[in-house]
Structure formats: C-alpha cells, structure tokens
C-alpha cells in the first residue's frame, strides 16, 4: 500500500542509520540526535548504503559525518522504520532505515557537516518525543527499556 492514495506502489529505498548513545553513571542512557539539513527536525544520523561497506559500517560513517561521533557500532540492527524523504526535486521517496546502535566514545571538535546541523544529547524519553517518525520513537523506547541492554 502506498503512502499516498492514487500513487503506484513504491518499494522503500533502503538507508542505514546510527542510534548514538552513552551510558550514564546511574546506569541509564542518553541519546544524541542531529537536525536534518532541510527541515531542521530532530533525526538520527543516517544515509544511503556505501559501496564496499557493511550496513553497520556505513551507519557509523554517517554518525561521523553528521555529528563527529566515534565509537563502537553494533553489527545487529535494533530494527527499522519508514519515513518520507524530500528530494531536491521536491519529490518524496519512501525510505526504510535500518538502525544500528552506536556506543559513543568521543565527539570530535571538527567534522564534515559541523556547520550544517545542530546536535544535542537527550534522555531516551525526550529523544522519542523529539523525533517525528513514530517507528524511530518506538525503536528508541524499546532499545532503552530492555533490561538485557539492547544498546549494550
């Protein structure tokens, strides 16, 4: 079923994303979100798959490019969510983002998209509220609730 009635059914284009987190001294987590370049809404670092890189490696690379983050990326995705990406042509394409956990070790002072985005650490509940995509909010809530530590 298409997102817009009357449109031909479209297969989602695949993207990869990183859910950057740090553990707090109290045993919880904080999540880093960045703003998108176009709409300035809060999102996770994400992008298109990269030739020669595994999906989790590409997700970690996006976190570096968009937020200057270095850390340990999980090889198993936390899940995926759908969203509509606006292209420069003003068309929208449906994207499916596979989300990988990224335990942040360090945030660099300089990175490629430093002046194109804002970034901020949120509590898991604030992060889930800040993002527009219900599927991403659900991944954040589920990842931070699991007692086994899905983010670990």
TrEMBL record:
<dbReference type="Pfam" id="PF00293">
    <property type="entry name" value="NUDIX"/>
</dbReference>
<keyword id="KW-0378">Hydrolase</keyword>
<keyword id="KW-0460">Magnesium</keyword>
<dbReference type="InterPro" id="IPR015797">
    <property type="entry name" value="NUDIX_hydrolase-like_dom_sf"/>
</dbReference>
<feature type="domain" description="Nudix hydrolase">
    <location>
        <begin position="11"/>
        <end position="144"/>
    </location>
</feature>
<protein>
    <submittedName>
        <fullName>8-oxo-dGTP pyrophosphatase MutT (NUDIX family)</fullName>
    </submittedName>
</protein>
<dbReference type="InterPro" id="IPR000086">
    <property type="entry name" value="NUDIX_hydrolase_dom"/>
</dbReference>
<keyword id="KW-0479">Metal-binding</keyword>
<dbReference type="InterPro" id="IPR047198">
    <property type="entry name" value="DDP-like_NUDIX"/>
</dbReference>
């Amino acid at each position: 079923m298409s997102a817009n009635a009357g449109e031909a059914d479209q297969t989602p284009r695949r993207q990869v994303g990183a859910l950057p987190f740090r553990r707090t001294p109290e045993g919880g987590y904080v999540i880093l979100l960045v703003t998108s370049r176009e709409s300035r809404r809060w999102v996770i670092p994400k992008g298109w798959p990269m030739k020669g890189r595994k999906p989790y490696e590409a997700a970690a690379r996006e976190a570096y490019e968009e937020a200057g983050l270095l850390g340990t990326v999980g090889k198993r995705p936390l899940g995926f969510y759908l969203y509509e990406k606006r292209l420069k042509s003003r068309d929208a394409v449906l994207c499916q983002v596979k989300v990988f956990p990224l335990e942040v070790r360090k945030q660099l002072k300089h990175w490629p998209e430093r002046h194109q985005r804002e970034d901020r650490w949120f509590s898991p509940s604030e992060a889930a509220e800040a993002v527009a995509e219900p599927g991403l909010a659900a991944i954040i809530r589920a990842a931070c609730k699991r007692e086994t530590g899905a983010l670990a």
